[in-house]
């Protein structure tokens, strides 16, 4: 989901010499002035880390030199020095005391009190009726099949499922049209919202509106690319402040595992994160440093003590260092810069470290079909390991990506048609567990649309609103039923992260539902999506399946009044 990992090629875009030239304010005897100076330094570093320089000097020059320097001792020393500088920056940006001060200021500026915090209780509109909401239709999801049913909702939960004609009464009754199907809301456990800190890329209001429009009723937000990163409890609290009043769907949070925050992992777990994310190479943003394999093993061993989950961006930096560089507007050049071997080696590390520690792990956004046999073998050996893939790897083809079309850039990359077919085989046979969006948006400027340079553009695909239609369009072409799609996009992700009340239409579960018209077609228009920035690789694509209504906790999303909740592990 970042650059050197999955979003954009930003890991070396600001040379250290340029950073060192930034004038530093002199210390004074006034503590408030010193605090302002400290904040200015942090802000400047974050802006530099997130910037996309217009000059050729940094990204292109470094890219051209990397392969010649990759195996040299000098290069190894430079890599170590750069990582040390990144960790220093991350420690400053994510400092717990600094974040507590940000929280205090935010609450003061917004006049927030305890009463303003989100409530777990769903509002009722029953007023004497049996249920708050009743949905009736000929096709209602019932696990592996669809049947004529009436669904009664009370206090945000599914309280009754009866055969059609049972005559359930409610304050509101929704009758499905003949072409409509009631499905469980999707659960997307891989979403980058980017707020606070990079809200111009995406924010909670726009992201959750997009989710609801695509039938997604629960998202779990990644610990980057927000600033600060969610690597300690104060950073989690700060992020929740921004999410609380802007949630159109339910929102959970991942924590981050980075160098030096081992002591923060258990407190984050106790505060409700669903697990911890790490990278095995540069994350694309300097405030979220990656872990080396030994450090990942240490994190796995630590979180095993409280039975949490480590989710891993698995690409090997050394393999990528020695691959051709991604300069220019030819997609095939970029594809060669992120070889399957980089994924395969890193996934092998995750498997073996999981085996050694006995921990729980999850491989993010699988794009290399080569890794499927060893993942299958690891599962057969009894390892507690799962894997996801994404709509872009299942629907797009490297052979069809035009030159300069940086909207398609993501890391790991979209690969060839033969690779795509093997990913589908892995899904069907159960080796790949589920499908999530890896929604990783950025501004149009960071996509380098003017030049179309894959070596410079940020790497990430915006698809949160489109995932169900994308997968359903491809699945039905292959003769795969909607019930399988719902397993991949709702039931299984909910089960893996411990969302016990989500992922299916069952008694006692949250009344998170979508009215889906599987035969309705439409043409993707980026300008009409709810994502903050109007860019998508699916522009102009004809898709099947349209979400017509979405209910979160029994309330229909109206895109004006946010009624979603902030959810925590153990509460959901």
TrEMBL record:
The keyword Cell cycle does not apply. Gene3D superfamilies: Metal-dependent hydrolases (3.20.20.140). Its EC number is 3.5.2.5. Residues 15-27 have a biased composition (Polar residues). The keyword Cell wall biogenesis/degradation does not apply. One of its GO terms (cellular component) is cytoplasm. GO terms for molecular function: allantoinase activity; cobalt ion binding; zinc ion binding. Keywords: Coiled coil, Hydrolase, Metal-binding, Purine metabolism, Zinc. Residues 34-46 have a biased composition (Basic and acidic residues). Residues 89-116 form a coiled coil. GO terms for biological process: allantoin catabolic process; purine nucleobase catabolic process. Homotetramer. Belongs to the metallo-dependent hydrolases superfamily. Allantoinase family. Pfam families: Amidohydro_1. Pathway: Nitrogen metabolism; (S)-allantoin degradation; allantoate from (S)-allantoin: step 1/1. Residues 181-557 form the Amidohydrolase-related domain. Residues 1-78 are annotated as: Disordered. Its cofactor is Zn(2+). It comes from Kocuria varians. Transmembrane segments: none annotated. It is an enzyme of class 3 (hydrolase). This is allantoinase. InterPro entries: Allantoinase, Amidohydro-rel, DHOase/Allantoinase_Hydrolase, Metal-dep_hydrolase_composite, Metal_Hydrolase.
């Amino acid at each position: 989901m970042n650059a050197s990992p999955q979003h954009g090629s930003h890991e070396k875009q600001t040379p250290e010499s340029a950073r060192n030239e930034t004038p530093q304010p002199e210390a004074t005897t006034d503590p408030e002035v010193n605090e302002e100076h400290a904040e200015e330094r942090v802000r400047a570093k974050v802006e530099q880390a997130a910037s996309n320089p217009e000059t050729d000097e940094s990204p292109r020059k470094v890219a051209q030199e990397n392969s010649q320097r990759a195996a040299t001792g000098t290069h190894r020393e430079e890599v170590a020095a750069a990582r040390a500088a990144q960790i220093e920056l991350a420690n400053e940006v994510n400092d717990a005391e600094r974040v507590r001060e940000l929280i205090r200021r935010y609450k003061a500026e917004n006049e927030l009190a305890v009463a303003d915090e989100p409530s777990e209780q769903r509002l009722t509109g029953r007023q004497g009726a049996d249920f708050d909401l009743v949905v009736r239709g000929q096709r209602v999801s019932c696990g592996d099949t669809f049947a004529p049913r009436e669904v009664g909702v009370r206090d945000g939960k599914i309280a009754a499922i009866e055969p059609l004609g049972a005559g359930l009464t409610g304050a509101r009754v929704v009758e499905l049209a003949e072409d409509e199907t009631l499905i469980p809301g999707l659960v997307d456990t891989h979403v980058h919202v980017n707020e606070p800190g990079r809200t111009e890329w995406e924010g909670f209001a726009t992201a959750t509106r997009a989710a609801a429009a695509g039938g997604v009723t629960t998202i779990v937000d990644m610990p980057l690319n927000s600033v600060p990163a969610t690597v300690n409890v104060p950073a989690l609290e700060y992020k929740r402040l921004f999410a609380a009043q802007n949630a159109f769907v339910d929102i959970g949070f991942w924590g981050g595992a980075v160098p030096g925050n081992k002591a923060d992992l258990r407190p984050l777990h106790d505060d409700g994160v669903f697990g911890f994310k790490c990278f095995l190479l540069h994350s694309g943003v300097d405030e979220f440093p990656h872990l080396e394999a030994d450090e990942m093993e240490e994190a796995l061993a630590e979180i095993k003590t409280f039975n949490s989950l480590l989710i891993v961006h698995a690409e090997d930096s050394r393999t990528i260092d020695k691959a051709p560089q991604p300069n220019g507007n030819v997609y095939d050049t970029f594809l060669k810069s992120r070889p399957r071997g980089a994924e395969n080696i890193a996934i092998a590390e995750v498997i073996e470290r999981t085996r050694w520690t006995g921990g729980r792990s999850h491989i993010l956004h699988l794009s290399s079909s080569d890794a499927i046999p060893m993942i299958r073998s690891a599962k057969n050996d009894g390892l507690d390991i799962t894997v996801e893939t994404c709509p872009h790897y299942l629907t797009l083809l490297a052979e069809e990506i035009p030159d300069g079309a940086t909207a398609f850039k993501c890391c790991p990359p979209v690969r060839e048609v033969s690779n795509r077919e093997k990913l589908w085989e892995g899904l069907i046979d159960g080796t790949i567990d589920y499908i999530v969006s890896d929604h990783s948006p950025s501004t149009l400027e960071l996509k380098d649309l003017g030049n179309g340079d894959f070596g410079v553009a940020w790497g990430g695909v915006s698809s949160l609103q489109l995932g169900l239609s994308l997968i359903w369009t491809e699945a039905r072409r292959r003769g795969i039923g909607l019930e399988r799609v719902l397993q991949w996009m709702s039931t299984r992700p909910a089960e893996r992260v411990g969302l016990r009340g989500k992922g299916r239409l069952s008694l006692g579960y949250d009344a998170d539902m979508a009215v889906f018209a599987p035969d309705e077609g439409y043409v993707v228009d980026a300008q009409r999506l709810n994502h903050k920035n109007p860019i998508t690789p699916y522009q102009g694509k004809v898709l099947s399946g349209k979400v017509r209504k979405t209910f979160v906790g029994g309330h229909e999303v109206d895109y004006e009044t946010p009624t979603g909740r902030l959810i925590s592990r153990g509460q959901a």
